[in-house]
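Researcher: Here's my situation. A collaborator sent me these components and asked whether they could plausibly form a single complex. I don't have experimental data yet, so a predicted model of the whole assembly would be a useful starting point for our discussion.
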Amino acid sequence: MKKLPLFSVLMSSLALLVAGAGQQALAQGAFPQREVTIVVPFNPGGASDMTARIIAKGMESELGKPVVVVNKAGGSGGVGMSMVARSAPDGYTVSYIPVELVMHKALKLSDLGPDSFDYIGQTTMVPAALTVPVDAPYNTVADFIKYAKANPGKVRVGNSGAGSIWHIAASALEINQKVQFNHIPFEGAAPAVTALMGKHIEAVTVNSGEVKAGVDAGKLKILAVMTPERDPAFPKVPTMIESGVKLEFVGWGGFAVAKGTPKPIMATLSAALKKAASTDDFKNFITSRGMIVKYRNPEEFKPFVDSQYVFFNDLLSKMELGK
Amino acid sequence: MDSLMGLLSGFSVALTWHNLLYCLIGVTVGQLVGVLPGIGPTTATALLIPLTYGMPPVSAIIMLSGIYYGGMYGGTITSVLINTPGEAASVITCLDGYEMAKQGRAGAALGVAAMGSFFGGIISVIGLALIGPPLADFALKFGPTEMFSLMLFGLTMVVGLMGASIVRGLVAMCIGLSLATIGMDPISGTLRFTFNQPFLINGIDLVTIAMGLFGLSEIFLGMENLAAAAKPAQITSFMPEKEEIRPTTFAVLRGTFLGFFIGLIPGTNSAIPALLSYSMEKKFSKNPEKFGHGAIEGVAGPETANNSYCGGAMIPLLTLGIPSSPTIAILLGAFIMHGLTPGPILFVQNPDFVWGVIASMVVGNGMLLFMNLPLAGWWAKIAEVPAKLLYPIVLILSIIGAYTVSNDLWDVGVMLVFGVVGYVMKKIDIPMAPIVLTYVLGAMMEKALLQSVKMNNGSLVGLVESPISLTMIVLTAIVLTGSIYAEIKNKKGAIALEND
C-alpha cells in the first residue's frame, strides 16, 4: 500500500516518456505493442476521471496491453488535452475529451478546437436538469418562466463556474425563452446545489446526478431535464421539449487521439472503446453517477463535435462573458 | 436516545473482523499519504475508489473515510520533523512543531498532536452521532454572504500571526492576498496574472507553496552552515511538560469546537480550522511571544482542529448529501458508486451502514492513537539523522510530492521558486504564516463577496441583512477595536520605537 502512489507516479511518468520518444522503434507489428495511456485533463475522483478509469479497464481486456490513466489537471482541461493533441500520432496517448473542448477557443482558455484531434468515440451524455427548492411556488417550466418574466433579473440561477457548461445551460434557457436570470457562479456544481438547498438562490441547471441527494432528501424538485429523452434516473420528470420549451442541452464525454493517427490504429482503438462502453460495469457506473450511456462511433462523433462547436460558440457569443 | 442506540448497533457492524481490517487498512494508508508531502488524502481516496468496487458498501466507506481522517494524523509528522507539511491541514504545524523538534522535543510535539487529534476526532464523531441532523440545517444557512463575513472575522486573526513588526506582517499579508488573485476570476471567468500559462488558470496549489516556503527554505538555510548545525538534544518523552498540560488541554478543547464548527460549513477545507486555531491560541496564550519558538499549544490546537473538522464535515454529507470539502466530495462519489444516496433517507433505509461508518470512525481514531503514540518516539529519531543525509532525502521527497500535485514538473518549479522566496523572506525576517492564512482565506473571501454582491444585484446590503453575517461583522468590529485599543494603551512608546 505504501508504495502505491509513488509507484503510480513513476509508472505514469515512464509512460509519458515512452509515449513521447519511442514511436519509431516500435513502428512494426500490430498495435498495440506496449501500454496505452489515457490522459484525463481533470483531477482524480471526479466523474470524468472515473469514466476514464472504467473505460481503461474495459479497453485493457480488449487490447491485451495495460491501459494506464494519468491525470493532467489544469487550465480547465487545457493542459491535459493540449498534451495529447501535441503527442505523437501513434495511438499510444489517448485523451478523455469533455464537452469543454468546444468552448475553449471562445473562452480564450486554449487554442484547442474540434480539429485538434482524431476521434475514437463518444461514451457518455451528461443531462442537465432545471432544479428548484421543493417549496418553490412553481411546479412546471412554464410557471417558472412566467415567474422569471414577471421578475426580470431576480431569479438567481447557480452554476458550476463562469463559462462552465452549466452556466451555458442556464444561458441557453434564458436566450431561448427571452428571460433574464441573475447567474451566480460557484466552484463546481456541488456548492451551487448546496446554496440552492439553503435557499440562497432560486434555481440551478446542473447535472441531474448532482441534485439527486437533494431531491431524495425532500429539499429539491426537478422541473425538467434538458435531454432529448427523459432521464432514466427520473422517469417522471418531463423533458424541456415536453414542457413546451424547444431546447436540448447536454454535456458529453468521449475519447480522442492526436490528429494524424493511422487508420488501422484508429480502428483498433475504436473497436476496443466500443466494447468497453458496452460492459455492465460501465453502464452501472454511468447510471449511478446520474449520466447516460451514449455511444457514438468515430464517424458519428466527429460531426457531432463539429455541430456542438457551432452551437456553443453561437451561445457564448450571445452571453457576453467576461464583462 | 435513538442515536445512542444507533451508535451502539453501529459498533456491531464496525467491530466485525473484516470491517476492522478495512478500517486498519484505511487509517494506515491515510497515515502514510499524510506523511508523504504532496499526496494528500484527497488524491489517495480518489485513487483507491476503484479498488473498492467489489467490496460491500459499508466496508468500502469505512476504508475510504479511514484514509480521510488518517491523513490528518500523518500530515503532522513531516511538518514537525522536516518542516515540510504532508498535507494542507498541517501547514501551520510547521511553525511551532519544527521549532520543538529543533529543541529536541519532536516526541512531545508528535505525542500531543496524536492525543489532540484523537480527542478532537472522538468528540466530533460523538457530536456527529448525537446532534448531527439539526446542525446540518444550520449549516445550510451559510450562503456566500455568511461565508464572507465569517472569513472576514477569520482574517482579523491574522493580526495574531504577524510577529514583532506590523509592517513586515502587512507585507506578508499582501503577498498572500496577491497570490490568491492568480487564476481565473471567480465571477467573470477573466484570466488574471496567468501570463498564458495554462497551469496558472486554476491558481497555485497551497501545499506546493507551503512545501517551498517552509520546507525548502529551511534546507537552503540549513545548508549555509551545515558544519555548524547542532545535533538536536536527545528525545526525552512524548508527554508535554508539567506546566504545559493546562494550556495544552485548553488548546485541545478550543480546537475541538472550532474544527467541528468549521466542518459543518460547506465550502471550507481542513486547512482553515487549523490556521484559525493557531491564531486563536496565540491570542489566548499568556506567552504569545513563545509562538514560533516551539509553543506546544501551537501544535496541539491546530492538530486537534483539523481532526475534529473531519467529524463535523461528515454531518452535511451524511444528513444532506452535501460535500463540504474536496475529500468529502470524493467520498460522496464513492457513496453514489455503491448505490447509496446520502441524506436523511439513508439513516432510515440503511441504518446499519450509517451507524457502522460512524462507529468505525471511533474505532479508527483509537487505532491511529495506538499507532501514533508509540511511533512518535520512533519517528522523532528522524530528527537525529545528520543534516547531510536528511536534506537530500527531504529534497527528493518534496520534489516527488510536488510532482504528484498535477503529475507535472510545473509544480516542482513552483515549489523551487517558493523555496527561494521563503529563503529570502527568512533572511529579511518576513513572517510566513500570514501568507498562508491570507492565501487560503483571500481566495474564498473574494469569491464569496462577489457572489454575495451579485446575488443582491450589485449591492452590499446582504452583508447586514443576514443575521449571521451581521453578527460576524459586529464581532469583527469588536475584535478590531479591542485590539487597536489594547495596542495603543499598552505600547504607546513601542510603536514609536518600531518606526525607527
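Model: Some features of this prediction you could bring to your collaborator: Chain A touches chain B through 72 residues (CB under 8 Å). The longest strand of chain A covers residues 117-133.
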